[in-house]
Protein 1
Amino acid sequence: MSRIDRLIAAMTLPEKLGQMTMVSAGYAVTGPVVAGDARDAIKAGTIGNLLNLYGPDRVREMQELAVNSRLGIPLLIGLDVIHGHRTLFPIPLAEAGLFDAEAWEESARAAACEAAADGLALTFAPMLDVSRDPRWGRSAEGPGEDPWLAARIAVAKVRGLQGKRLDDGSAIAGCAKHYCAYGPVTAGREYASVDVSERTVHEIHLPSFAAAIAAGVSCVMPAFTDLAGIPMTAHVPLLRDWLRGHLGFDGVIISDYNAIAELIRHGVAADLTHAATLALKAGVDIDMMANAYRDGLPQALARGWVTGEDIDAAVRRVLTLKEQLGLFNDPYRRGASAEPEAQRIARRALARSIAGRSMLLLKNESSALPLTPGVRRLALVGPLADAPGEMRGPWWAAGEERDPVSVLAGLKAALPNTEVAYSRGTDIESDDESGIDEAVLLADQAQVVVLCLGERATMSGEAASRAHLGLPGRQRKLAEAVIQRARVRGQRTVAILFSGRPIVAPWLFESTDAVLAAWFPGSEAGHAIADVLTGRVSPSARSPISWPRAEGQIPIYYAERPGGRPENPADHFTSKYLDEPNSPQFPFGYGLSYGRFVYSSVAATPERVRESGDVEVRVEVRNEGPREAEETVFLFAHDRLASVARPTLELKGFGKIRLRPGEQGTVRIEVPAREFRFLGADLKSVFEPGEVELLVGPYADRSRLLIASIMLVS
Ligand code: GLC
């Protein structure tokens, strides 16, 4: 008889329901309910899991209570390590823009090491929700708008977090969330109902979860939301039938915070007993913060709504995860020893490197960037210039508010011989304009003006939808006053945007010489920004999400189907607006560097390919710019004629090349022909013979892409 069999045979019902319960230890409140003190329940073995607790001593204190309980089952302790633990990396939306699976994995590995050293064995990451609606604050936490990209991020993050063996002391269990289709909440409004087609669910929102499962993710968290009227926490077809049945996922499903109790508010459960029954029958193993399993399942069992086997199956999965993590063998292993200083230093260096590579250069005219060496006086203006806490972005885990390097500190360190004159000018969100005049005057004597504008860290992430996506407060008034004066004085103006989403600010993109989207760069923000502004790092990020010109364009994304009347400016009766172009301000994949790349000679071989074959696409790229830089080359596909209408562009691959000025090189992108499968009218995967266009270039705009084609043959 295995250890788990013995334990299940010995456990009382309250002990079993305790293993199916997770409560917040209150060190970080991430939901509407704060638990009291769980110590007594842990001692009694009637709470088996905690979240929002970290620190070796705190974890050891709680773990000792559990280990000394009647059956000595160790606690599973988790935290939202979304983009770093104490050392913060750029927010996931920013990091997606690296288009570099090694980097995605490396930062997750670094975060897992730091979190495990703090006693954690689980994180509620990666967040894999595809989002095409920047009103939704949680776009910041995710992989952007593209399912192909999201699936590759999923694999890299699961590998990084879980390492090669889950029982390794530096491994933590990942939790793919929020399953699924949370991104298309109605009107971009947080927690709102979701209603998208089954095709959209399977084509757009499930691929990243299927990839995470294939990569061996330990846990899955259902979304708060309903999908066409069925709350994900009770979604039998997608949890029990698709996730567990079709994909064979036998890991742990953890509800979101209080989500089981919220089935009552959804209107599908009469009370906690009914809610607990629905969740358990759908396959949810752990109840986070609703106490629905502890309070509701005894009655559900008595009424025959659930069986002892249902409960034992959930307990088994939880105990199996704890065994896989090595918690039974050594519950104190994570947090037992402090990390070597060299590892901490290396992690900060990695955070700086990844932050520098996440900076998205949206505009750079009049050679505003990089800054000319020897600039005598630089005016730094705006509410995000000296705001270290805001650099963390949403979900800062254990990242301390004063820890990050501010832009001001970073620029001073990088430009010791430059006078960096700073003025806040206004707040992020208030109506205070009293500092604008001083800021304008301060900028007067400078050769270059750097504006630091954007959102507060808490204006994206959870419970942070925005209906207006411009700069909050009086930042526009500040920027316009400074820019207008700078133009008169012939000064260069550089705007750095800090946000968890694309910002709608056509006036800013129009009026400044350069715009750098820094997103929220994390602990090394100031140094990374200085690296880019001074040219020590050439920006290379590409946007993983479309930037709207106006909120009215949302949802906006590149991979749209053509419709029967695709946009034709010459034809009134075609798909377009009267008052805005259809095109985004900046498309998916857009991003400038300090080079300038020209494409030529695209070719695809073989001309005819079977499903079992591979396609190679080659393209010549030349750097005609003044500085060495890295270019990411995208490969899109368009199946012009198929049994269902296909998007006009679909990302199928990318390649990278680093070139010095004047240098030319060949980029080769390999694509297995099975990548051209799609879901037929019956939503079953098909491989249809016929021509497929292959489009290669810098971003998702057909006018910028070189076109080859291949013939798929059966
Ligand atoms: C929050 C979030 C979820 C997070 C969980 C625990 O409400 O929806 O992403 O992992 O609760 O903090």
Protein 2
Amino acid sequence: MKIAIMGAMPEEIAPILKKLHNYMSVEYAGNTYYEASYKGVDVVVAYSKIGKVFSTLTAATMIEHFGAQKLLFSGVAGAVSPELRVGDLVVANKLAQHDLDITAFGHPFGYVPGGSVYVEADKKLIALAKEVAQEMGQPLKEGIIATGDQFVANEERKNFIGETFGADALEMEGGSVAVVCDALEIPFFILRAISDAADMDASFSFDAFLETSAQISAEFVMKMIDKIIEQE
Ligand code: 3QA
């Protein structure tokens, strides 16, 4: 069994690499992939770089080239739901691309022919996450994540995304990773810890909380891996 663990930024995978102790770096397709054995299971870890294109490339590479059979994403996100505070964990039950727009042809936002507005994440992995959350006494919100090639730092844009997609959180990679995994029939799990509220203070909040929120998400994902291994 081989599990992919991905993030978008170095800060998002640093806590994961720290837990692996021994890993091998492999250069491939313009990026670095870290291969390791963790508690007897093969893992491949990488940060994609920011955005939908890089994350698509990395997810596809981890599956098609490195042979990953499950994919777990760990990182940070902007909150859309007013219930979510910095450090809170959100797991996606479904994801959409908020910047995909052919509405001029009468289609809904996020839709293109042959695709669908939402891609659903793996239900078994979400159920597993709920068990982990319970055991850790760590609150975990299940919700909709909207993805686009924009760092949202604007209340109006955030509200549009919340209203149009019912999104609870937004980021720049989950929706594209979801499309790749869905097409290749690889169970996937997208976890994010809130770093900001996607408002006018977002860039400051992001800079202040990137590392601590990335750490919260990474720790949870490693507990998920432990649980997956336990259940094998
Ligand atoms: C933003 C990161 C990208 O990978 C998506 C963080 C947190 N808050 C967000 C928001 N809007 C959209 N996405 C997010 N991640 C990178 S921009 C800063 C880069 O600094 C999630 C996310 N409000 C690099 C140094 O200059």
